[in-house]
Design a protein that fits this description.
By secondary structure, the chain is α+β, with helices and mostly antiparallel strands. It is about 45% helix and about 15% strand. The chain has a domain of about 120 residues: 2-Layer Sandwich (Tetrahydropterin Synthase, Chain A), CATH 3.30.479. Strands 1, 2, 3, 4 and 5 form a five-stranded antiparallel beta sheet that branches. Strand 1 and strand 2 form a beta hairpin. The longest helix has 26 residues.
């Protein structure tokens, strides 16, 4: 009896184990789907980065050519144009320490510059480093008391506008404060 069980064990060991065969089609379809999603995402991202604002192509007339309002957020240094206004140049938000010797306070300030025309917007974009430098140094001289209230914000806005004009000349129509937070 031992011989019979040994023979069946030996025969079982020699026979290859058969696994159920599965089609590779579902795995291939899943790989293709993931690839398609990745390519679609890349193309969508690339297309959004490659779009050039229409304000650059308008020429001297700026927004006078009848362009409708473009997207409000054109990026960190994007240019937008609104009907009845000159091209807008958005600058990155600035965070500076305020001039408070006893306590640490900071000011977070964002602003958009309205240019007189597209050449002015281009001049502003070419000088963003100098503009940021001037504004950072100015804002760093302020105290918390200098920064509170509507009148002080208006004074700060005018001072920023003057400093930007010193850098780029008379191409600045107006400066708009878009963010102003003191902590």
């Amino acid at each position: 009896m031992a011989d019979a069980s040994e023979k069946s064990d030996a025969a079982a060991a020699e026979e290859p184990i058969k696994l159920p065969t599965q089609s590779k089609l579902p795995m291939l379809m899943m790989a293709m789907g993931i690839t398609a999603i990745g390519i679609g995402g890349y193309l969508a991202f690339s297309a959004s980065k490659a779009q050039t604002p229409a304000a650059h192509a308008e020429g001297e007339g700026g927004a006078e050519a009848g362009a409708e309002t473009e997207g409000a957020d054109a990026g960190a240094h994007g240019t937008t144009s609104r009907k009845g206004m000159g091209p807008m140049v958005n600058l990155d938000t600035l965070v500076v320490n305020l001039n408070e010797p006893e306590e640490l306070h900071y000011l977070k300030c964002g602003f958009t510059i309205e240019a007189v025309n597209s050449k002015g917007a281009s001049a502003i974009e070419n000088q963003t480093v100098r503009i940021r430098h001037e504004v950072i140094f100015y804002l760093s001289t302020l105290t918390v008391a200098d920064s509170l209230g509507a009148q002080n914000k208006e004074r700060i806005q005018k001072s920023i506008e003057e400093r930007i004009r010193k850098v780029v000349g008379p191409v600045v129509n107006h400066v708009y404060l878009t963010e102003f937070v003191i902590q």
